[in-house]
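User: Predict the structure for this protein chain, please.
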Amino acid sequence: MTTGVENHYVFAHLDGLEPAPRIAPGGTDDGRRRFDVRRHLGITAFGIQAFSAPGGVRVISEHDETLLGEAGQEELYVVLRGAAAFEIDGEVVEAPAGALVQVQPSARRKATATEDGTTILVVGGTPGEAYKPAPEEAAEAFAAYNAGDFETALAKQRVALEKEPDNAVAHFNAGCFAARAGRADEAIEYLRRAVEMNARIKELIATDDDLESIREDQRFAELTK
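Assistant: Here is the predicted structure, written as structure tokens:
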């Protein structure tokens, strides 16, 4: 990476960036890669990342941007190279290199690479709101989680929570890390706080594999009522 005089600009090439850690530990490596462009370049005004994948692999995972009923990001997908087949609310959109695909927060979307080396840049922001980047410790927590170091993941997430004490999803993530680390009491408490902040956290609690170690705990049953 080359930085301009007096830090007025930063220059980098996507091929020179290290892929970001995978979110889930122990998953099969299908060749998909995520590049945390925002953190690499020190951007704080908007969200931006990139994904690459071989042909036939899901390059953009299926999702919408209305997690737990809250307002989410409007996203722009820029196909830098290769080609992808997007499916947006059931409609297929073929997107070759150079295509721009704008998707509203509530739309369900996914994209599959149709050529090897397909790379898509994703830019996002919540309409009407200033962009607020997640604490660095949140990314570090997921990196540790991916490596199977659940104690470090929990320690990093505690710091993230100090910076975002009203973030229900951050409390939920802390509960997941605590459960993985064998800290049942701490996990239940984080999950309880998350549900108090947003009752729809129960939807995540009901299906998340990270919480298997505490599902037989009576206190866990109380959380999902």
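The chain has a mean pLDDT of 91.
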